[in-house]
Specification:
By secondary structure, the chain is α/β, with parallel strands linked by helices. The protein is built from eight helices and 33 strands. Strands 1, 4, 5, 8, 10, 11, 12, 13 and 14 form a nine-stranded mixed β-sheet that branches. Pathway: Glycan biosynthesis; glycogen biosynthesis. It is an enzyme of class 2 (transferase).
């Protein structure tokens, strides 16, 4: 018997994350490293515990191994209670056969039994791949005040980017009268953040109806939310003020990490009143060599830095050899940048090796054709041979052999 929880959170963490390319070829997007010591999933999990939500389901599907191991029993986030806490919820064998999650709504539908055992009044549905801090309890309070069936968190976005989001049109009291999923011609700049509060009895009703509709994509934005709106349900927008980033692309992931190095950033990871918790490796303190130069960078535990690091994020266990240069880059856990190598405007994934005198990426001002510039990405466990050159915008998923010494001259 499980104790009643007023609010249950469900984190959608099963997407493939194909826009992150080689970074998610073997890894679920919410498990991608972020900010020197975190993974993306740390943010919604920490928001839940800081908001007082004790029952959290994490719906996994694509490449779940690392994510499942990382979440474990939820202890780092204080989500390991005997009768609540965090629960990983993959697709499972049902009486009528096994079903992958067909869409965001179907994923919640398949786990209605998990939600029902807590007999909640409200369900908060979250994405597992956004970087932000948010007190969900305030959003739930707003939902109750409005006596809403559904409340959608919104953020104002530039009009040029609005077509990437679900766009809401609202009345002066913030009630929603129109919802367009990724419209070609947006009518407003109020974008859905993919954060929803539902009254559970209402959500259950629409999930069951959506599942019966064989033509449905079983998606919240495409199906469930429009169905609720067409039925005249009370739906409201909850305006969010603060840092929020969808890190679903290489550029946005790189930019969000670089934002942490901006002294004026609104994302404060040192705030004692709203900590972002994570599962950290037990490693010795960082070591900085006598000749090393580190400027405006984040350097995690276990790093050994002998070269030059500028405006970069180094995760746990990274090694930067003497004479190596790392600028405007993200170097993920366990990666090595060997002697004389130059890494600029790049993401080097976990346990990758950049060989001696190799060059990865380039500065924008070094590229004549600006459309050819972009962040270079090295996949996990990839070895870039000595003297090799990785151009801007490249996505490297195979080892690159060492360049012959006479060809390097």
């Amino acid at each position: 018997m499980f104790p009643k929880q007023e609010t249950v959170a469900m984190i959608l963490a099963g997407g493939q994350g194909s826009r992150l390319g080689v970074l998610t070829s073997k890894l679920a997007k919410p498990a991608v490293a972020y900010g020197g010591k975190y993974r993306i999933i740390d943010f919604p999990l920490s928001n839940c515990v800081n908001s007082g939500i004790e029952a959290v389901g994490v719906l996994t599907q694509y490449q779940p191994l690392v994510l499942n191991e990382y979440i474990g029993n939820g202890q780092p986030w204080d989500l390991d209670s005997m009768n609540s806490g965090v629960q990983v919820l993959p697709p499972y064998q049902r009486s009528r056969g096994a079903d992958w999650y067909k869409g965001t709504a179907n994923a919640i539908y398949q786990n209605m039994n998990y939600i029902d055992r807590y007999d909640p009044d409200y369900v908060v549905v979250l994405s597992g791949d956004h970087i932000y801090k948010m007190d969900y309890s305030k959003m739930v309070a707003y939902h109750k005040e409005k006596e809403a069936a559904c409340t959608i968190a919104v953020i104002d976005v530039p009009l040029a980017e609005a077509s990437r989001f679900g766009i809401l049109n609202t009345n002066p009291d913030d009630s929603i009268y129109e919802f367009d999923e990724k419209p070609k011609v947006p009518k407003s700049t109020k974008a859905s953040m993919g954060i929803y509060v539902f009254s559970w009895n209402k959500l259950k009703e629409y999930l069951i109806a959506d599942e019966k509709d064989k033509s449905s994509s079983n998606d919240f934005g495409k199906n469930v939310l429009p169905a609720m709106l067409n039925a005249g349900e009370r739906m409201f927008a909850y305006e969010f003020q603060g840092y929020w980033k969808d890190v679903g692309t290489i550029d946005s992931l790189w930019e969000s990490n670089m934002d942490l190095l901006d002294p004026n950033t609104t994302l404060d990871l040192s705030d004692e009143n709203w900590k972002i918790y994570s599962r950290n490796p037990v490693m010795p303190p960082q070591y900085v060599g006598e000749e090393a130069v580190i400027q405006n960078s984040l350097v995690a535990d276990g790093c050994n830095v002998y070269g030059n690091v500028d405006f970069s994020v180094l995760f746990a266990g990274v090694n930067v050899a003497p004479g190596a240069v790392v600028k405007d880059s993200i170097i993920m856990p366990g990666a090595r940048v060997e002697e004389g190598a130059v890494v600029q405007y790049a993401i080097v994934a976990e346990n990758a090796v950049v060989g001696e005198n190799a060059v990865v990426g380039a500065r924008p001002e070094e590229i004549e054709q600006k459309d050819e510039w972009g962040v270079a990405v090295i996949g996990d466990n990839i070895k870039i041979g000595a003297g090799a050159v990785v151009p801007p915008k490249a996505m490297i998923d195979k080892d690159i052999p060492e360049v012959a010494k006479d060809a390097r001259k």
